[in-house]
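Working notes for the structural subgroup meeting. M.R. asked for a predicted model of this chain before we commit to crystallization trials. I am recording the input and output together here so anyone reviewing the notebook later can reproduce the run.

Input as submitted:
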Amino acid sequence: MSPSDSVDLVPVLEADGTPLEVTEMEAASLQGLLVANGIEAVIAGAEMMPNLPYRIQVPSDQARQAAEIIAEARATGADGAEEAERAGEVSGDVAPAE
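Returned structure, recorded in token form:
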């Protein structure tokens, strides 16, 4: 997904309705998790100021699903995130990680 694509992107929201704000490293991990589950995700943040939080943006029609995937991964920890990524690979949504 490139910035020139005409997709309506919205930030992934926390359970309380506020935008999910994470570190750059966590944003990259969550982006990989979402992509592994068939959801294109874009990281938005101030690259020149890495101490500021990053947000993950997804197509508006997949925002709820993205929030659920992230909440489930956080609840189950790293093992759950890896399992969810493998599930996306097994279902054929994405190519297996190398």
